[in-house]
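fyi for ur records
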Amino acid sequence: MTTGSVRGVVQGGSGSGVAEAFVTLTERGSGASRFAETDPDGRFVFSLLPPGTYELLAEQLRYRPVQRASVTLTAGREVDFSASEGNNYHVFDRARL
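which gave:
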């Protein structure tokens, strides 16, 4: 079976990375979850994932939680995840070529 990965960055309103954000990736079919913490630059990665549909949630004490309801994973999938301070959040996802 081919696997994929979900990579991303959690950013504050100034564009800087949000360190120590807790990111949860849950496979919708099985309910199985994986967890990661962002690095000092706000980056996270989930590797060796089977294809499927996932939910992505990022949480950090200074920010409102941000959830992406549906991430369809195929081999080499990359997710750009950007959160702004306050109540305005933007989530981007881009298939890696």
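The radius of gyration is 13 Å. thats all i got for now
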